[in-house]
């Protein structure tokens, strides 16, 4: 990843189709659009590839998570359990619905710790939202069992994990709803965009309506359509969908390339006894967009990051020190900084984060280094990179 590294003739052709007709809107304008329906085609393609009944495109991954929560009935005062290691978007989406994000510790999968999830359940809990970070996945079977026992919804934030599988099922298709992002730096990019997938017919209709101001999309006169309930504009444009369509058709090729590069790097790093790797649940296969490994302690990881940088190795992240992906530095949220007044119950929930510590998460994130796997590398580049990484890390051990 990211998919933009390999933009080519397929992406250009799809975009050209849209610009030729000039219709950038996904709905309506039937007579003028030269029969191009890129958003619809991409939804069909996603249904096939993700082996689900329904896919709904939206304007971003953040919108996808918001829509997923909304159709699952998450609203004012409801609690949603999610991990401390995520992208800030998953947290924001919960807040947007007036619901309360409840952060819990991660384990060596870099996603939700099952014991921590069980402890966090209260009568207000409505959903559990695992975030399949860096192409790997949460312990979905255990999470599903918890959801079934407590009558909760399972919403998969698979924004970083398209192409990975669990029990042979595409990530995102295991829970009640799954979310993808097609933003500019994701494995599949549309520039901006996102999707939700589900097998629930009612959810699919609600997602379709909710993401377009509540339009019921019945009949052919958009202005005369009725509006069963409140909605917003989370629509994707035909131009973005066109890029996404070309990219999604190449998903399997992208994953195969990532897997090759990942395997070379992992084998090289395996020669260092102090290194351990992120745990992938037994039934899972990641999408190989990142190689995640652990060093013995925080200090070694800090030093390794410096050494990797000095060796000219880019694209490695130490999320412990990152402003966007880990709760430690989310001061703007802990202090409930907002340009508009926010609900007292949310303010209160946020304020509890101010003094909260997540020692177990620190233990894993502090030692973790996450290296992006690029699609555009040549085999020689990967080999050279592997030997440079081994040398740099050995030098600090
Ligand atoms: C990228 C991402 C999102 C949000 O996607 P956008 O398309 O950038 O809005 C949400 N969750 C995770 C885990 C992400 O990585």
UniProtKB/TrEMBL annotation:
Keywords: Aminotransferase, Pyridoxal phosphate, Transferase
GO molecular function: transaminase activity
Any Pfam family matching the protein: DegT_DnrJ_EryC1
Source species, domain of life: Bacteria
Similarity comment: family membership: Belongs to the DegT/DnrJ/EryC1 family.
Protein name per Swiss-Prot or TrEMBL: DegT/DnrJ/EryC1/StrS family aminotransferase
């Amino acid at each position: 990843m990211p998919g933009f590294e390999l933009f080519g003739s397929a992406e250009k052709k799809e975009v050209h189709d849209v610009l030729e007709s000039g219709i950038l809107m996904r709905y309506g304008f039937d007579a003028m659009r030269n029969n191009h329906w890129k958003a619809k085609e991409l939804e069909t393609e996603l249904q096939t590839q993700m082996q689900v009944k329904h896919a709904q495109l939206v304007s971003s991954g953040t919108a996808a998570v918001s829509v997923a929560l909304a159709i699952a009935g998450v609203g004012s005062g409801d609690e949603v359990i999610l991990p401390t290691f995520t992208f800030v978007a998953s947290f924001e989406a919960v807040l947007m619905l007036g619901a309360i994000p409840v952060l819990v510790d991660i384990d060596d999968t870099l996603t939700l710790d099952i014991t921590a999830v069980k402890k966090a359940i209260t009568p207000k809990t409505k959903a559990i939202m695992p975030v399949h970070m860096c192409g790997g996945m949460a312990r979905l079977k255990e999470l599903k069992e918890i959801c079934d026992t407590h009558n909760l919804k399972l919403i998969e934030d698979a924004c970083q994990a398209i192409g990975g599988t669990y029990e042979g099922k595409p990530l995102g298709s295991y829970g009640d709803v799954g979310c993808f992002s097609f933003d500019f730096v994701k494995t599949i990019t549309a520039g901006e965009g996102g999707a939700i997938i589900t097998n629930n017919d009612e959810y699919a209709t609600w997602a379709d309506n909710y993401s377009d101001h509540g339009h019921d999309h019945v009949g052919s006169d958009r202005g005369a359509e009725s509006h069963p309930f409140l909605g917003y504009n989370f629509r994707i444009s035909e131009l973005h969908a066109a890029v996404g369509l070309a990219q999604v058709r190449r998903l399997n090729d992208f994953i195969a390339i990532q897997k090759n590069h990942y395997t070379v790097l992992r084998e090289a790093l395996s020669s260092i006894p102090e290194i351990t790797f992120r745990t992938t649940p037994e039934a899972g296969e990641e999408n190989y967009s990142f190689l995640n490994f652990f060093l013995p302690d925080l200090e070694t990881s800090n030093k390794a990051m410096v050494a990797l940088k000095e060796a000219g190795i880019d694209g490695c992240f130490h999320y412990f020190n990152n402003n966007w992906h880990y709760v430690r530095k989310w001061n703007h949220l802990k202090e409930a900084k907002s340009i508009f007044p926010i609900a007292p119950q949310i303010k209160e929930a946020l304020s509890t984060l101010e003094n909260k510590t997540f020692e177990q998460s620190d233990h894993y994130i502090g030692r973790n280094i996450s290296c992006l796997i690029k699609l555009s590398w040549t085999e020689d580049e990967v080999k050279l990179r592997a030997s440079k990484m081994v040398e740099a890390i050995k030098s600090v051990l």
